[in-house]
Amino acid sequence: MEQLPSSFLSRMEQMLQEEYPAFYKSYEAPRKFGLRVNTNKISVEKFLEISPFSLTPIPWVSNGFFYGEEERPSRHPYYAAGLYYLQEPSAMTPAERLEITPGEYVLDLCAAPGGKATALGAKLQGKGFLVANDISNSRAKALLRNLELFGIRNSMVTNETPGRLAGYFPEFFDKILVDAPCSGEGMFRKDPDVAKTWDETRPEFFGKIQKDIIANAISMLKPGGRLLYSTCTFSPVENEGLISYVLEHFPEMKLLDIAPYEGFAPGYPSLGNNDERLAKCVRIFPHRMDGEGHFLALMEKEGTLTPSSDRPRTKLDKISQKLLEDFFQNVSAPYDFQKMEVRGSNVYYLPDKDTCSLKGIKFLRNGLFLGELKKNRFEPSQPFAMALSGEDYAHVINLSSSDERIARYLKGETLLLSEAETPAQNGWQLVCTDGFPLGWGKAVGSTLKNKYPSGWRQMG
Ligand SMILES: C[S@@+](CC[C@H](N)C(=O)[O-])C[C@H]1O[C@@H](n2cnc3c(N)ncnc32)[C@H](O)[C@@H]1O
Question: Scanning 197, 239, 381, 384, which has the fewest C-beta atoms within 10 Å of its C-beta?
């Protein structure tokens, strides 16, 4: 274990008192590795039937599993098929404890690289609207990739400050997750570099940013809507202190109980403004359960929730409609042409949401990028392949996950098909592994031209 900052340790000793030796000792234990099943693509039961990994359930997360350090799930074809996300177990808790009903409008305000946004998107099951925002452009790109890999089709990825975003979405969302930038004290075991860059001023520094973020988040929450605030740090000012600020300045916000787990510890009223309600918050400590460290507070805004609507409202020109109809003859999944929008030559499938002006908003993607209209044809995109299931497209090349050609496909190589695999008709093929889409290929006889985009390829 790296040397931990002494002022951090003495603060933890004061906070934990007789529990402190167990907390300190937990840093000698190896870190825990977690995998979260993408229920947008596969049920937990079905995944367990096909999983090649040795998995143990994470008891407080319905679709989360521990895996051993020796396993390499990021190298398996199922990773490229978007069947799971690799995530530190305690970091799975915030999205798990924010209940989502398909059809709701959901915001993940500090979303990159998407550990929690992918979970929220999966819970929406393709219905409603997810805005996944991050202030950092480079991190927002990684966020978009993860949402695409997960096959989330009803999301918008924005790259805004919370203040500007609030101007577009006043009292708009049913649910909001604020997984705030923080001093990261819960990451010291997982990532020793965080401990090296930490200093005593970090909690105060982040505390100020968090106040601005939460105030804007509250303004975007519908009356009756729910907001979950989380951090991966132990410092009081960023946790109970921040929630005390909310209770004092936003009387319309009340704290709710969080679905219990025996390893959770309650928030400490004495570390905030002594308001007893702070005990409804949850603290995750590494000596009490198999997670690195987190803080959660679930709040509701006074009022009655009004349902979100889902009006489709686009109209395609005749030529685009014809080219899309030709391609979609082979797609059995229900895609509604009234939700397709052409921008330049690109075609997008828009999320189910009410019309509101988004003029000037900085975004990377609104809806699912379906593909491109060329002169006399439609070319499907990689994110579209990831949003389909193996049964959704008429022409499939299905390779076993143990087939050596999968690694070559993911590197962008042309593949040779056996006689039995060669399709009767040339053209677009959905390349799958064990029935789960990886991307597109184009068959010309027994040759499968590779359409896996260069930006998605795996090197080495
Ligand atoms: C804890 S990380 C989010 C992790 C993410 N929720 C996940 O599960 O993968 C916090 C994020 O907040 C972003 N951030 C930093 N300052 C911000 C600000 N002032 N407003 C909004 N987001 C901010 C960072 O770029 C970072 O991606």
Answer: 197
